[in-house]
Amino acid sequence: MRTLSALILVAVASALGVVYTKYRTRLLFAEVQRLEQALDAYEEEWGQLQLEQNTWAEHSRIERMARTRLGMVLPTRESTLYIKP
């Protein structure tokens, strides 16, 4: 009788362990899914920021800003000095 009670107790404990493990697995899977969605959003934002950075750093835009905002012009050939090393 004692052996049967011990076996039943072990079977119940094992079943509870399986249920708890399944529960934890589902929680962790949901967390992984949430983190993957966040990663996808961050990767999309990173791509947009890189595109924006490339747009802001275009040579033509920088030259246009130098001319309009700073009043800069390219020096003439006559005003350029070349120094030999």
Automatic annotation (TrEMBL):
Q: Does the keyword Transport apply?
A: no
What GO terms in the biological process aspect are recorded for it?
A: cell division
**Protein's UniProt keywords contain Ligase:** no
Oligomer and partners: Part of a complex composed of FtsB, FtsL and FtsQ.
Q: Where in the cell is it found?
A: Cell inner membrane; Cell membrane
What does this gene product do?
Essential cell division protein. May link together the upstream cell division proteins, which are predominantly cytoplasmic, with the downstream cell division proteins, which are predominantly periplasmic.
Similarity remark: Belongs to the FtsL family.
Q: Where on the tree of life does the source sit, at the highest rank?
A: Bacteria
Instruction: Name the gene.
Output: ftsL
Q: What is the designated name of this protein?
A: Cell division protein FtsL
Where do the coiled-coil regions begin and end? 25-52
Q: Note the topology in the membrane.
A: Single-pass type II membrane protein
What keywords sit in the KW lines?
A: Cell cycle, Cell division, Cell inner membrane, Cell membrane, Coiled coil, Membrane, Transmembrane, Transmembrane helix
